[in-house]
Structures are given as structure tokens and as C-alpha cells.
Specification:
The structure is a homohexamer of 291-residue chains. The first copy, chain A, has 291 residues and is of the alpha/beta class. The first copy, chain A, is built from nine helices and 17 strands. Chain A has three domains: 5-91 and 185-216, Periplasmic binding protein-like II (D-Maltodextrin-Binding Protein, domain 2, 3-Layer(aba) Sandwich), CATH 3.40.190.10; 97-183, Periplasmic binding protein-like II (D-Maltodextrin-Binding Protein, domain 2), CATH 3.40.190.10; 219-285, Alpha-Beta Plaits. Chains A, B, C, D, E, F: One of its GO terms (cellular component) is cytoplasm.
Chain lengths: 291, 291, 291, 291, 291, 291
């Protein structure tokens, strides 16, 4: 079955966000109820919903050709997979998650050395053990099935827990001591699949579209009319890295400038563009950007 | 009242979708609660909600000048109306509906001839009777008020029922024997209204906008920069029927290409465009397309 | 703290609409639960939710540098503030609100003179008293805590009440006698803040973006290809005030025309453009317009 | 299969109310999605959801042994069935439905005689035709697929429509001319099934429980302590038809009175009971009453 | 119109709770949309929704005969009304509301004397001014339209605000300094109406039913069988104030004990009853209790 | 802190059902958002939400005195705890859960012996390994993070999974081979806590109330009047194990019978009671039953 790519998608809380990303990238995914095989409108893709924690295991043993999962779970499962791409959203709010060591606010623990002989609860037992070993510390690491942040001080002395904004830790009166690992979403492949030309091309095209959709989040298009005489002043306001399109108009004194900028810089740039002589400034939405 | 066009809209399950289509076409429709006269922001249109089954009857007798309904109900009611347009969505998922003959999975019925003397339940009694007559078969056709698919085998030997994906039939352990009729939405007019110049122009303009909105579903805009030397290779990747806009840029080595393509081909075309030399590829959404 | 602008936002029913407007203008506002200090992604802005009725008071005394509130409440509180901008939505449905004198349908009151000695319930006691004085009328004006429209005839002879469409008055069997005040949303500033160069620039930029977002509501972009020979006929169909962009194409017989028009005129203009020779007409959405 | 009773339940708008009634009567009904065979926790009952309009047809021909449907549809379909019970809710708000002749408010039609030669739209074509014949009137009766109340005056001169409170008719500016038929829910049986001893007993028991559950709606239990000397005065306040339970207490001066009364008379009776000497009056809820 | 009692019900946040209380008391209240005259199934009652703040004013001037409102608003408006009943829920969670003086956590204000010359924001301007006067303090009291707890320290030095649990104050970093007024719901009457025999009887009966429904909240019925020999030990476990019903049984060694107790003491009493020899203990729900 | 009982409640899907059970038992539990320490209205109870899988671990080590969890997780964690009570709902629908061995429908595996050398995915690794050992079978048991039923045949040859109705297994085309363990909810205690008289009494009282609330689910009260002459016939219809209350009435020919029966036998018993001479049969709801 050389013309099918077996793709693992993370089940659970990320499922809907992943489907949304694929939709933006141009794929229609639907989830038949009570099935873990999402339907996708590309006969060359066969999707399976798998827990992020197990993705590495099943991509490594070839049950899947490739999959999306967090860098953290690849490290935790020590899976033999190839990372083909990091999928980072351009939106500021989508920060990488961090695995941190956290203790009660009034705990005396200030660093790894203070963990000697303590009880640590965590979902990432292997990451935690390796990190302790790298600091020459011996402690009791217990697997936590969830609700880890409620455990100190009664059920654990410290925890290693994932956090994005830290608010859940704070709400449980915990203090972050230090970071163990930062993690983002990765597109990982089975080594043999990555070496197969057809599968590799299929994966590269898919990654191109996913990254194109992600790049468009937080970006907008900007069109404006500029008098030739003002053109250099207007261009000076645009971000250096961007390469705007400049097209002639019927009125030869004017040109049309068209560019892509970060959505959250629009409010700073538009007043400057207007001051520099741009007129008829129009912002429009984008759905994909491939540089 | 020569300056008013009396327009029938299908009541019931299609009501919200129709209003959405009109909104995309540039009309604001609101449904005052418990009234069947939707408000529309065009004083020359007077809308009435009517069941799709009855649209033909009331357009034919001039109670309405025109209306939207399915081809199936026009045939069933044998109404004397003019079909001005077929309104077909470009989206793949919006398939025409089919009226099919269905029987229990284990029924011996394999074709029309096997229906002789049987009981058939259906909402389209006239279509069914004509079809039986065309096969020289005599059977008992009973009008079904709904839930038709539950009737075999206890309440009927076979049914003639509408289906889109067949899943409801399958869920009731029914098997499709053959098709009687395919049906899509039509814009139908009273013959006299179609011959009145003002009404005809009004209907044609309305159809133009409805089709423009429908055409934009499933289409996207694509802009990119292309080096003159790569232009022919890039253009070769675009669908033959499309006529892309090619505009000069300040940097005379480059041109800006702007085109409209099917949303579900984007994922195939973008990798090819990039391979052919296109850069700064941007996809943007559209709301109407009038060729 | 010269680099912070203290901005008041109206609490209550307008809160979500205001946040939506800011989001369209490029600001991300979130409302932490049970806090009246919305978070905004601009460290130079400090937002506070305040009732519209009190905005004038707190901007006038410098507790806030500026704020959004209705013209009505500025008049009612007689606050010493500077109106920097009127924020009017281009959408037809967003009409200014009116404060009107209303009486029971069967009341003999026909004008201000008939109010002599009567009981009037209202939320705007000061506006009402001044208006009565301007007509030389003496009446008992009682502050109404709400549900004002239920009060006549048992609890008041007349009311001064705000209305947009009049439907709530009609539902309570009230008749509008005359208008006292029309009101739209205003951006008001403390006089000293308006004279501070940094604060003034910050406020002007903010207003520019808010107005850019509002201008884009109810507008759309329109692109089309036009044969040179048809250009003047096509341009004649476009609104006189708009200045379309006309760009050359590779095929020198054609030009690309790009313009912005009111969404609710699209349905009239597109058929005319097509009749005048335009082809490949595409409508696309906009998010900001700064002329 | 002599030990199974085939029971038809009305599909559609009454479905959930019927299931609720059965639950109150002690049966657990669940509706598997996309199936018309509800599951019930009595192996001797086999339920099928059928439109109320068709219940008579399928009970008459023995496809079903019995079913719940309206008296109106039994008359319309002229079905040969036995009415075993009328299921009337004790709650005042559950009034019987009425089929009425309705015309526009300004129509000249005042009675059946004025219908000669008119167009009448209705869902109950047979009832309407018989009623017209009984008045010696000839008119055009058209089957209405729904939204009947919107049809006058444009699509019909009059309608025969079902109504409970008349508010939908009023909202469409229609006036009730006269009543054709009052209808309540009936438990109907196939004549042969009604003559089968086992089926008849099963149906009678089911009816007993349904009526017991219905009787309890709108009733409450009332317990109180009464001094022997006050007993006759207290009993005089209770509805004559009720037979209260009077039990002795340890303190022989007192008795405990326990009775069932209509919920909406409680507020009148309790003050009187208290005035007559009752103490410790307690109201408690009931779920079934079988006299 | 001597046979109608004009009853004011508090509009706004208490509206649904009030309707629920009336329903439990045996009255069916419905709220027609956009009307302030709720429908009630007692032709002798005419209900009007009025803000709690204005209830005193309109009961005092005879626009209403009686109404439900808070003790606080009667005091604030200094209305000349008669309090016929305090309506206190037996449920522990329904505590009286308190009007308190609150200041920022780090404010130096410790008591009324520290308010000299300060700005105080409040909805109860009159209560606050009188209270300040009673302490010989002069301060600036500003009417607050709402969101009062957000005002300190920027917009006020202190506030007088209503609170039930204090959590909203705490969330805004405010500290309670002292109480000004406790308030519960009252049934108030116009003095003339209270002196009218028919109206007074009607009001007394209504209050009896409202209090009966309120008394039943948080109470349950308890039935049990007790051996004669254990009776005194069992009775000793029941609250002293309650007077249980003791009825003989067929088995003369046993009696049936039936009593009403607080729901939140059930869990303490049942183990003791069982230990004392009670068997077959059954708890059942109540809807009204009139002692 | 001898007067506090540390009680663990299962977090996650059972959380709301547990709170509901406690509420029925007379305890008010509320869940402050983002806290794992539910508030309960008994100062002698301190609640913590803990995953069911970890309950055994933390009760065994004394972090908690007691907790509710499944028998399965106690076995899996091999925790040293005392089972004080099995909490079984009387409702038929609340069946015990089963851990079963399941394989694809077309798998050749028919019993434990066929598992030799196979891959088995499960959440209960220890239970599975012990069970395999007891059959002398060696297989690869992999911990499954969830979605276990999707794994065969691609990711596992067999699974050990929990099921109630088997429908999720069936939907994934799996077949149950055999059962490993049945499990119900248990109230478990730390051995030292169970030996502490105060804690033990507190736990026993709590269990008494929980079981009283559970016993009342699916039971109802039944009152009726019976003529002395019919009493023995009526009593013969009541379940043998129940001991009805028989009380004399004023009319000495009659007695009042009061009993508790299973809700799902009501529909069989009531027709028989009526046939045996009972009258005025009334069914009423119960909230607790302690035999």
C-alpha cells in the first residue's frame, strides 16, 4: 500500500484545534462519532487519533508513518523518530508550553539540590528522573494520573508539571522553581517513511500547507495608494524584512503598494503610513502565506 | 403594483440556509417571530415563506411571481412554471439529493418489476406512480407523512425516499434498489412574470447575485510574485480555464499574479507553484465571484 | 506616569460590543472574571470599566484621561470634557439613539406645553428639567431606576426614555410626542490630557484605528478586469466619490480595477458593471479602511 | 408471538411528552438515535414511532395492536379502530385542541354558508369536506403541507387549522369563525387485539398506569393534625368528593387527616383549614393516583 | 375596583426567584415578553414589575396596594408604608444582605471618624448620609450607577455597598470596615390598603401561603416504625420543638412516627434514631408547611 | 487534628455524580473553580478530589483517612486499605463495570492461552499481568494512555478494557473474549483510621447516609385504603420482604396501608392491588430509606 500515508493525530484536548488547523490548510476532516479514524478528503492520507503520549511509540515502530505530537512526549518516550518540522503559530498567545518544577509557596525548596529524598509527582517520570540524575539527586518520582497541581504539600513535596501561563499553578499556591523542558508541536516521521521518496514528498507538501495556514494567523494584508514622491517615505515605515508589491496605476503619479504585516503591528504602522502620505489604506484578511 | 416582485422562500429546514445564501448575496433577511413574511432590505421584493412542496402550486397560479424550490417538488406537483436557473453550490459536499427506491436488506426485490402488487410508502406519490407506470407495474402507493424509512418491512414492502448520503437508509437496514430522480434547487417563475420586462430584469439580477455568492463558496483568491523568467512555468500550474491577472511591479524582473482557484485544489497547486518559482504566495478569502 | 493613558470603557450592555470594536481595530482585550480592569495588549493603555453615566464625571476630574460614552450622558452630567471624535458605524442598522417624550396612546398630551403640573419619570433628570425650562413648563420630574416604559399611566403621566426603534415603547402602548436629544458614541478626553502632546498623539492614533475598523463594516472590496475600451463606461457605474485603483495587465487591452464600495449597494452595482463590460468580478472582505 | 403488544407512539413534536408520560407511569423509554423503535423496559411491549396522522391506518390494518393518537386523526383517516380510553391531563393548562375555520380579520365570511366557491387550505381535507357537505356547501379544499396560517388571504380564502390558545392565528391576523372538531389524545386498539384476552389485559393495565400518572399532575397531598372537636369543621373545608384518611394519634384529642386535593385550590383551602383549627399542615408531592 | 389587590413585584435579578416562590406557594406566574404586567392565575391579583428601589415610593402613594422589596430600599426612600411580614427563607444559604462600609485593603480608614472629607460612592445616598450624620462626620457622598466595588481607590476613598458573602469585595481588594444596615425581603402595604378589610384578608392569605412555601425549603418529612418500648428513646432524639405524629399500627407492639425536621440535621439525627431503635426510616420531600 | 476526617473523592467523570449522591445524602458540596478542595457543609469533613486510580495509594499511606474509588483501582494499585462498604445503586441501569479481554472480531484469539507472545494494551497493567501469570501465559503488556479500544489490530493484538454495556467495544469491531474483573464503587479506609473510634463512627454515619440515599433511588412510597375484609388479599400482592405499615382509620371498616416498593415493580403491582380491593392508591417520592 505504497500510496497511503499513515498519519497520527493527537486525540483529546488538541483534537479540535488540530482539525481546525488542517481545515485552514485546505483539508476537510470530520470525526465520525465513537470512531478514532477521522475521515479526510484526501484518499492518500489515512488518519488515526492517538494520545500525544503514545505517538512516538507508534511512529517509531512503524504502526504509523508520521504524526503530530509535542516535543515533550517524544523525549519522555525516548522514541526513535525523525522531526521533520516544528509547527509554531505566529500568534503571540500561542506560546510553547513549559514543564517546570513547582513547589508550595512556603516550601524551602529553591533548586534541584533541595529535592534529595523528596516525593515528586509528575506525568513525565522519565524526563524527571533524567533531570534529577543530571543534578546528582535521588528522589522518589511517582506517576501522577492527573490533577497533579493539587498534590503538594499533602501528597507530594514537589511536582513537575506542564504550564502555559502559570495561572493554574498560582491558583493552587504553587511556586515555579525552575524549568526542565520547553515544548512545541512537532511533525515526526518514522525513519523508514522519511526515507521513502513518495512518503517524504507527501509529508513535505502537507507540512508546507500546515505552515502556510499557521503563518497566516496573526498576519493581514495591507493595500494603499502612494504618490511617487512619497514612496520612499512610505516604504521606510514597512518592516525591513517584507518585500511589498508596487504596481503602477492609471494616474502615473501614484502607485499601489500591497504588503503583508503582523496583525499586532498594524495599529502602530497605519498612523505612520498615513503621516508618510499613504491614502486609501485598506486592511484585508488572509488565509495562507507561503514565502 | 408593478414594482414589487413576490418571491417565495422555502419554509422549514432550508429556511436558515436560504437566508444565509441571501445574506452572502448582499440581502439582509430577518424573520419576525411567528410571521411567515420575512423582512428584506429591498422594498421591491416581497418575501413569503412557503413549504417547498407547495411552491410550484402558488407560483403557477400567480399567487407568487417566483420562488426557490427543489426540482423534485416541481415534478411532483406538475406545476406550470419556468425554471430560470439551477442554483448549484460549488462545494463538493453539497450534492444533489436523490429520490430512490429502497427495500429491506433481505428483501427479494431487485428492480421495478418485483414491485408488482406490493405496498410502497412515499411522500412523492405522483412521481412514484408515473415511474411505476413507465415500467408497466401496478402497486399500492401510500402517502407517507414522514418517518418513511421506518416503515419497511412492517408497514410497507418498499419506499421511495429522498437521501443525500444514504446513511439514514443504512441505519434503518434498507438497501437502495435504484434511482427515480435527482434534484437540485431551482429558481422558478410564473410564465407571465417571466415575460414582464421589469420582473424579469429583477429576477435576473437577483439570480446573478445568488450565483455570485454560491460561486464564491469553495473558491479562494491567490496572489503571488513571479520572476518574468518563471512566468510561463508558474502559469502552467494554474487551471487552464482560469485567466489570471498579471500586473507589472516596480522591480521589472517580477510580476504580480492574481487568480481565483478551487479551495480544494489549493493544497495540490501551492507546492507546484512554489516549485515553479512563485514566491510570496498569499491566499485570501472571497465573498462573491461573477464571471 | 507620563507614558500611560487611562482609558474608560463603558461597562454593562455595551461592554462586549466595545471589546469587539477594539479587537477589529487591532487590540486584544480580555475581561478577567470579577475584575473591572480589562487586560489589553498595549502597555501604554490602562483600561477601566465604568458605567456610561459616570464616564463624564471621572474623565472631567482626571481620574481617567479619556473614555467612550454616549453624548447623552455627557450632557446629563454636564461634564467638562473635550469631545475628540464621534464614533459612527457605517452600518445602516446602527442608528443613533434618541431620547424622546412618550405618553400613553390615549393621553391628551400633544406637546411640551401639556406637561404643566404632570409627573414625568426618566433616567435623565437634568436633560428633562432643562428642556422643560426652555419651554417654560413646570412639572414633577422623578428619577426612574429602570423599567421606565411600564410607568405610564399608573406611575407617571409621561416619560423621557431612550429608544432606537421604538418597538419597546410601542409594546407598552406608548406614543412618541417629540424628541429631546439624539445621541451617538463619543470619544471624550480630559482637557488637560487633550493638551498633553504624548497623550493627544496616543488618543489620535487610537481614534484613527477605531474609525478604520468602523469604516470597514458594511464595506467590501471589488476587483474586476475591464477592456480598455469599456473602462469609462465601467467607471461611470462606480460611486462618484470613490477613487478606484486601475492597474495595467500583461494583456494590454485590459486593466484591473480595484475599488471599495458599500456592501448594500453591491447588488445594484454588480449587474451594471457586468452590463458595462466588466468581467471576472470578485468581491472580497475588508477589515479596516483609512482614507 | 402472542406475548408481545405492538404499541405505536406518535413521532415528532409529541414524542418527548409521550416518553415523559410513560416515565411517570413507571416505564423507561429511550430513543436510540436515528431509530424509530424506542427501547422500553418491558419485554412484552414493542414500541414504534409513527406519525399521529398514520396511527389509525396502521392500527386498523393490524400492523400495530394499539397506539396513542389524536381523536382528530382517527376521524380524518376514518380508521376502523376501538377507542379504549381518553387520556386527559388534569392540569388546567392542557386543554383539548380545536380544529377551527379561520379567515382574515377583514374577511366577509361569517359562517359556513359564506364558503361557497372559496379556496380552503387545511391538513384535514376529509374532515373539512364532510363538514362542508353537512352544510350543503361546495368549496375547493386544498391539502396544506404546513404553515397553513400564513395562507389567507393570498393563497386561500379560509383555512381549517388546529389551535390551542388561538395566539398563532391572532399573530397572523386571522379570526376564528366556528369550530369543526375538538380533539384529545386517545388510546386506540385494533378490534381483534381488543378482543384478545392477553392483549386486552395488557392494554388495560397500561392505561391504568398512564391515567394514574396523569391524575397526579396538578394534585398534591395534604397532611394535618386536627383536634377531635374541630374535625367536622375542618372536613367541611375539604372538597365533598374526596374521602380523607383519618388516623388516630397517641394524643387521643387529636387525629391525623391525610387527603389529596387539586394543586390550584391549595391556596384557597389552606387558610380555611387553618382557620377551622388544623395545625401542622404539610403539603407533599405525588407521582401517581389510582382511585 | 374593590376586589383587586395591586401587587408590586421586584423587577430584575430577583424576578425569577420571586416567580419561583409564588409558584411554590401555588400561584402560576408567567412573564409575557416585553411586558411588565406578569399574568397570574388569580383574577383578584394585579401584578406589576417595579424596581425594588422604587417599590416604597409607589406603595406609599397608593399606585400599588402592596409589594415585595428589601428593607434597605424602604429605608433609603423613607417611604410611608406598613411592613406586614418579613419573608425569611429557612435555608441557611439565604442569608440577609448587608450594607457595609468598605475601603481598599491598605487604606488607613478604620471607622466612621476617618471618613471626614473623603469621597464615598454608593447606591444608597440617603442611608449613607444619615449614618455619617449620626457619627458627626461630613463627607462627599456620590451616587454610584453600579460597579461600585471597582471605584476605590481611584474614583472613591470608600464605598457603601451591599454584600452577601463578601467575595466580590475581596476580589476587588476591599476590606469591610463596619456594617450600616442588614436587610431582608419584606411584604409592605399602603396604610389605607392595610386598613381595608378585604385587602387585608387577601394580603394575609397570600403571606400565609408564601411563608408556607418558604418554610418547606430546607425541611423534610421523616417516617419510621418504632417499637413501643423504644418510643421514648426515639422521641428524645427529635428536636424538642417539633410535635411528631404517632399512629398505632396493626402490630400493636409498634407505632408509626411521622415528623418534620430541618434537612441539614437529617444526617445527624438518622444515625441516632436508628441507634435508638427506629426502623424503616423514610425521608420524603415537602412543598409547604403551615404550622 | 483528631476531629477532622480526610475524605478523598474521585476527580473527573465521576465528580458530579458523587456530589449529587452526597447532596441526596444531606451534604452540600460545592466546587470552587480551579480548586481540588470541594467545600462541604460539615466542618468535620475535609474533602480532596483525587483521581480514582490514585485513591488507594493515598489512603494507604495516610495522606487521606478514607475515600471512594472503584474496586478495580484498589486491586491494580495493590493498596493496603480496608473496604468498609460497597456502594451499590438499587437502580437496574447502574450495573457494575467489567474489565474484559477484547480482540478484533476476526481475531483467532479465543482464550487466555492464545495470548502467548502477543501485544496487549491496557490501563490496568498489573491486573493484566497477574491474570496472564495465573494462566501461565507470557505476553507484552503495554500501558495505554487512553483510546485503548482503537488500538487493535494495528497497535495491539488484544486489549484489557473497562466496559459497561459493551457498545464502545462493538463500535470498534471488537469482541469480548472473557472477563478479568467486575468492579463497583467502594468506601475504603486507612487501617489506622478505621481503628480510631471517632473516625470510624464518623465514617459509619456517613456510609449510613450514603446508603440511605442510594436505597431511595428506584424506590417509591405507596399509600392506599383497604377494607378490613380485603386486607389479606391486598397484602399478598406486596413483596414478601417488605413490612407495610397498617394504620386504623375513623371508618373502622378500613385501614390505611403504607409501604415502600421498587419503582419498576409499581406498574405490575398497582393493577393487582386495585383488583384485590385497594382504593385511593397514591404513589409518592422518597429521598432516603434506612432499614
Amino acid at each position: 500500500m505504497s500510496n497511503v500515508l499513515k498519519l497520527g493525530l493527537p486525540a483529546g484536548s488538541l483534537q479540535e484545534a488540530t482539525a481546525e488547523l488542517f481545515r485552514k490548510a485546505g483539508y476537510k476532516i470530520t470525526f465520525p462519532s465513537r470512531s478514532y479514524y477521522p475521515a479526510i478528503d484526501d484518499p492518500e492520507l489515512h488518519c488515526t487519533l492517538i494520545r500525544a503520549q503514545e505517538m512516538g511509540r507508534y511512529v517509531a515502530d512503524g504502526s504509523l508513518d508520521c504524526g503530530l505530537t509535542g516535543h515533550d512526549w517524544i523525549v519522555e518516550s525516548d522514541a526513535n523518530v525523525v522531526e521533520l518540522s516544528e509547527l509554531v503559530f505566529s500568534k503571540v498567545s500561542r506560546r510553547p508550553v513549559r514543564w517546570v518544577l513547582a513547589v508550595p509557596n512556603d516550601s524551602p525548596i529553591q533548586g534541584p539540590k533541595d529535592l534529595q529524598g523528596k516525593r515528586i509527582a509528575t506525568e513525565v517520570v522519565n524526563i524527571t528522573r533524567k533531570w534529577l540524575a543530571s543534578h546528582g539527586v535521588t528522589a522518589q518520582v511517582e506517576f501522577s494520573w492527573g490533577a497533579t497541581e493539587v498534590k503538594p504539600p499533602k501528597f507530594a513535596d514537589a511536582i513537575v508539571e506542564v504550564t502555559e501561563t502559570g495561572s493554574s499553578l498560582k491558583a493552587n499556591n504553587l511556586r515555579i522553581v525552575c524549568d526542565l523542558l520547553k515544548s512545541t508541536t512537532r511533525f515526526v516521521a518514522n525513519p523508514a517513511a522519511a526515507a521513502d521518496p513518495w512518503k517524504r514528498q507527501k509529508m513535505d507538501d502537507l507540512i508546507l500547507m500546515l505552515k502556510g495556514a499557521m503563518a497566516a494567523e496573526g498576519k493581514v494584508g495591507l493595500m494603499m495608494n502612494v504618490r511617487q514622491a512619497d514612496l520612499s517615505r512610505v516604504l521606510a515605515q514597512l518592516p525591513a524584512l517584507k518585500n511589498p508589491t508596487i504596481a503602477p496605476l492609471a494616474d502615473q503619479d501614484f502607485v499601489a503598494v500591497n504588503t503583508i504585516i503582523d496583525e499586532d503591528t498594524v495599529r502602530h504602522i497605519i498612523p505612520q503610513l498615513k503621516a508618510a502620505g499613504a491614502s486609501g489604506i485598506v486592511e484585508y484578511p488572509l488565509t495562507k502565506i507561503i514565502d
